[in-house]
Amino acid sequence: MTITYELGNSLYVNITNRCSNACAFCLRSKHDNVNGEDDLWLEREPTIDEIKADFEKRNLGKYDAVVFCGFGEPTERFDDMIKIAKWLKENHDVQIRVNTNGQANLINGRDVTPELRGAIDIVSISLNAPTAEAYQKICHSRYGEGAFAALQEFAKKAKPYVKDVVFSVVDKTMPDSDIELCRQIAESVGVTFRVREYIE
Ligand code: SF4
Q1: Does ligand 1 come within 6 angstroms of the Cβ of 23?
Q2: Which listed site, 6, 40, 57, 120, has its alpha carbon 20 to 30 Å from 64?
Q3: Distance 69 CA to ligand 1 centre (A)
Q4: Quick check: helix, strand or coil at residue 100?
Q5: Is 140 in the pocket of ligand 1 (CB under 6 A)?
Q6: Residue ranges per domain, the chain?
Q7: What atom in ligand 1 is closest to the CA of residue 25?
């Protein structure tokens, strides 16, 4: 079972395969890994102790960041993610990012953003589309078209509690005109905008 895996200069953490979306471009639909090596399908979700033990096998000093990502939406295990992130912060000088679909408040049924404080440094939210209708067509959220407004609200609420909130889109998955509209949405929400490279 792969719990942590390396990608670039970061160490990624794979804590769940659950997700409130079923994106058309999701790597899970075509691959069992993202780095050519580690099978990210979990036969079961690792416990907090198993995740900590996996980190202890790593030299965290050599990574630029620890990233909650993997094959699934980390905020499906929001409480566990925060516990692990706080434990990491207590024991290591490491930057922590979560790559998320921004639906944490819907998934958890409450505003979880204050709980990010002191645990998560960067929240990177996949925007994926410039309108609610287009988002739902691509991402198939179990919350329907409301997910698009909810992820923007989540981003706004998260800002006071973390160093940076990012909206990201993947290039080659939408026309340049839509990327520009996404950039404008990021500006209106007041968050950083990033175009990520498409991974074949
Ligand atoms: S939000 Fe991420 S993990 Fe979930 S289906 Fe989309 S790409 Fe896959």
Answers
A1: yes
A2: 40
A3: 10
A4: strand
A5: no
A6: 4-196
A7: 7
Is the CB of residue 21 below 6 angstroms from any atom belonging to ligand 1?
Answer: yes
How does strand 4-7 pair with strand 10-13? Answer: antiparallel
- Could you say which of 3.30.1070.10, 3.30.1340.30, 3.20.20.70, 3.40.50.300 is the CATH number of the domain covering 4-196? 3.20.20.70
Phi, psi of 3 (to 5 degrees): -100, -50
**What phi and psi values does residue 150 have, to the nearest 5 degrees?**
-65, -35
Whether residue 66 contacts residue 10, with contact meaning beta carbons closer than 8 Å, is answered with: yes
Q: What is the pLDDT of residues 135-193, one digit of tens each?
A: 999 999 999 999 999 999 999 999 999 999 999 998 888 899 999 999 999 999 999 99
Dihedral of CA 166/195/127/19: which sign? negative
Q: Is the CB of 141 under 6 A from ligand 1?
A: no
pTM reported for the whole predicted model: 0.94
Q: Confirm or reject: Cβ of 199 under 6 Å from ligand 1.
A: no
Please state the rounded mean pLDDT for residues 14-20.
Answer: 95
